[in-house]
Amino acid sequence: MSSHHPALVILTGAGISAESGLPTFRGAGGLWEGHRVEDVATPEAFARDPELVLRFYDARRQALARVAPNPAHFALARLEAAWQGPFLLITQNVDDLHERAGSRKLLHMHGELVRVRCVRCGLNERLEGPLAGRACPRCGARPGLRPDVVWFGEIPYSLDEIEAALARCALFVAIGTSGEVYPAAGFVDEARAHGAHTIELNLEPSRISARFAEHRFGPASRIVPAWVEELLARG
Ligand code: BV8
How large is the greatest C-alpha to C-alpha distance in the chain, in angstroms? Predict the structure, then answer.
């Protein structure tokens, strides 16, 4: 393990996918057909009106086919390939742009749009096509299928692995996140408590900017490649 490359943890949010054409949650829109994400992305909303929630996700699943990774996603994949020390990319995003850019050491703490699960039989797999009105292909339940994403009030995935990585990282970098949602918004505090240097790369100051030692503001497709080239040039 090269001493030049200390343990690095990166956290991304919707801002890194904005220039690929996927709307952020709290941007100008922040709404979907007049609904706030907090009102639709919940187990209660799914129990109350499964078809409305499934239509919300069907629209976002279909949008994936129309978008592509941007230079920020590709820069993080290059960084992962070149990094000699421990490397972990944690994303709050449920899109598949990091994978499509080549990232492998990646955790989707809020799940993935391309995966579905059945609330009745536990089926959990990648499944194409609309979910609204569709019976589970294994047990036939309807409603039964839901997107394999973490809703508000549900416990994020891989928290143990994330805690362990934050405890040993020397450099923690947050990219394109508003710092509105927990536990992700608290990761910078955990990294800093263990002595990590912390950097925020974002379009504008976020709710958690004050907790970072260093900031770079601008669009991700410009500032992320610049930061990666600089980091790798340092050796
Ligand atoms: C949990 C998947 C218990 C679904 C998502 C009261 C106070 C504090 C906390 C709570 C509270 N009441 C409830 C809570 C907990 C709650 C929470 O935090 N609520 C918030 C709203 C207050 N959290 C939960 O429920 C979580 N679960 O707590 O369980 C627990 C926890 C641990 C251990 C045991 C038990 C579950 C939260 C997960 C919800 N699911 N997504 C889906 O996507 O449909 S959250 C969803 O919203 C995203 O995944 C993401 O995490 C979040 C959006 O945040 P961002 O990614 O930051 O996006 P946003 O639009 O907000 O910001 C974009 C940023 O990009 C901006 O800063 C902008 O400036 C920047 N930007 C824009 N363009 C660009 C750019 N940057 C660079 N370049 C650009 N071009």
Answer: 56
